[in-house]
Amino acid sequence: MQFIDSEQIHIKNALEEHKKKLSPLLTGKINESKNPFLQKFIRKNLHEILTGEPLVLVKIQKKLFDLKPDFETYLKEKRKTKHFNNRIRIVYSKYFEEILRIIDYNAFTTRNSNYDAYKLAQNLNINTCVYCNRLYTKTVINKNNDGEVIKLTRPTFDHWFPQSKNPLLGLSFYNLIPSCTVCNSSLKSSIVMTLDEHIHPYVDKDINFQFSYKLNAIGKYEFAIKNVGDDKNSRSKNTANFFKFKEIYETHLDEIDDLVKIKNAYSLTYLTNLKDFFKGTNQLTNEQIYRLAFGTEISEKKFEKRPLSRMKRDILIELGIIINK
Ligand SMILES: [Zn+2]
């Protein structure tokens, strides 16, 4: 998991463009609505729906459910067909569809409009999956010889509060988390994350879990996830479990082998030796030496630039090759 600092200028600009481009679009759709209740509710809360921070989003959702408790029942129960009150289904399936018509995430993902998921991804400029830091999720937008814009690839956007249960939040800036398809679709099960039990990339600066390793009974390495710091309710560890980091990272055990080999061969002086090697020719910073040695970033702020940065930093500290600051 990577903390996204919303105080960074480019993130502030991304938020501003998100609001500026989507507000008029959604206002047009609100004006066309035949549901006076939703029309009034979404119009009144539009600014906060688009730009509200996660806690604000929870409040808006609650406000809606306080006014229409049966709608909350519908969203909770709609997949369970048995024993489901038919009247609630008939009335509130229409509410659900109407919200999705106004807050149309699918239209946002098409490649045609002047502001879409590609543009948001480009503005956020986050290079690896915010959740797992295993896969590159770079955005590639090119122009062909005729000057036509070709949108090739981008991260998927995970709805941290799932759209099926929170249709109002389908286009909320702080609910759109750039991530890989594995974390977004394959791993997200029916369990819903909550701010009390899980960490949110725009909220939680301290990521209080650490990758660790151990030798198992048959002499092979395996990953473990450790709780560190002051983590009330183990929110970081819950999140690591939610995304099955321990299991998924098992595919990267060869990385531990390599790091242990370095430790055994150079008895902890690997980085100093490298630095000496480059002395005189091209003075490199410690950060550059680290990147040359391990192919990843050492600074937590830059983990998103290279896959596996967090895991390698944690394991290197455990091996004593680098020092925990
Ligand atoms: Zn991922």
Structure description:
This protein has helices spanning 9-31, 36-51, 54-67, 69-77, 86-102, 105-108, 117-124, 181-186, 235-242, 245-249, 253-266, 270-278, 286-294, 309-319, and strands at residues 140-143, 149-153, 156-159, 176-179, 209-215, 221-227. The strands form 3 sheets. The protein has a two-stranded antiparallel ribbon with strand order 1-2. The model has no long low-confidence stretch (mean pLDDT 91). By secondary structure, it is mainly α. The protein is 47% helix and 10% strand. It has 2 domains: 9-186, no CATH class; 209-319, no CATH class. Bound molecules: zinc ion. Zinc ion binds next to helix 8.
Name a few traits of the molecule:
single chain, 325 residues, mainly alpha, two-stranded antiparallel sheet, two-stranded antiparallel ribbon, 14 helices, 47% helix, globular, binds zinc ion
Task: Output the radius of gyration.
Answer: 23 Å
Low-confidence stretches: none
Average pLDDT works out at 91
Which structural category do the helix and sheet elements fall into?
Answer: mainly alpha
Q: How many distinct helices? A: 14
Gap from first CA to last CA: 20 Å
Major beta sheet, strand line-up:
1-2
Number of strands: 6
- Compute the number of structural domains: 2
Helical coverage, percent range: 40-55%
* Ligand names: zinc ion
Coarse shape: globular
